[in-house]
Task: structure prediction
Amino acid sequence: MATKNIFTTIIVLLLAAAGAGRAQGQPITTESSIEIADMADRAKGNLSDTTYWHKEGTAALNLSQASFSNWVAGGTPSIAFDAGATYTLNHSKDRTLWTNRLELAYGINNTEDNGTRKTNDKIYLSSNYGYLIAPKLYAGSILTFNSQFYKGYDYKVSSTVYTSRFMAPGYLSVGIGLTWIPRKWLSVTFSPAMWRGTFVLDDALSDAGAYGVKPGHDLYNEFGASLKAEADATLWKSVSLYSRLSFYSNYLKNPQNIDIRWDTQIRIALSKMLTASLNVNMLYDDDIKFIDADGTEHSSRLQVKQIAGIGLQMKF
Result:
C-alpha cells in the first residue's frame, strides 16, 4: 500500500506541473519530442522534409569540492564529480519510425573518512521500431538494455564485498507491441509479449543466487507483458522534464507482482552552459532480495536514488 501511495503522489505532482505549464501559456514541447511528432506527420505525407534522420545529444559534468582549515564548526574535506551523457537518434521514412535513446552516467565521491565511493552508474539503451497502422499508432518491435560500468557496494553491509558489477546484473528485454504517440511530448508503448533476461555474469554473485538467478546460473529468463510511458517536455522556458515509467509482469511466475521502474530528469538552464539538475530513480523488482550483514534475507523493497547538482552542460 505504501508503494502505491508513493507512485500515486508523484503522478499527481507531475500532472499538476504539466497543468501549471499550460495554465501559464507555456506549451509543453521539446525539440526532440516535436521531431518525433513531425516524423509521424511525415510518415503520413503531411511534410515534405526528406532528411529522415534526427539526432540530438547532451553531455553534463557536475563538480563539487569542500575543504576546511581551522574551521570550528567542523567538516570533512571532499571532492565529487558526476558525469552523464544522453543521445537520441531517430529515423522516419514513409510509414516507418525508428527511435533510439542512449543514457550513460558515472559519479564518485571522495572523503577523508570513507575514501572513494561510487554515487552514480548507469548504462541504458532503448530501440523501438514501428510501422504506422493508424493515426499516431505504430506496431513493431522493442528492445531495451540496462547495466552499469563498475562494481557497486552496499556500504551499510560491507565496503569490501561488492553487490553488483558490469552485466551483474544486466537486463535485456525484447518484445513486440504497439507505440501510441497521442501528444508531441508523450509516447506510450505496450508489449503483450516480451522476453526479459537478467544476466549475472559474475561467479560470486551467480553462486549466491543474486537478482533472481538460480545459484550457479548466470541467466534468469522471464516472459511477460510490459508498459512504458515516456514524457519529454518543457514545463517552462528554462525548465525541462524527461520521465520514463515502466511496468513489467512475468507470466511465468507471480504475474500479479509487477516490477516498476521510474526514472525522472529535471533540468533548469541557469545560463547557456550552466545547468541545475535533479535525477530521481525508483525501482521495485520482486526478484531482488535484500540481505543483511548477518546473512538474513528480506523481501523486496522500493529502491530510491536521488542525485542533484549544478554544472556544465553541452549539446552536440
User: Anything to note?
Assistant: Residues 1-34, 43-48 have pLDDT under 50 and may be disordered. The chain has one domain: 30-315. The chain has three helices and 16 strands. The domain at 30-315 is CATH 2.40.230 (Outer membrane phospholipase (ompla); Chain C).
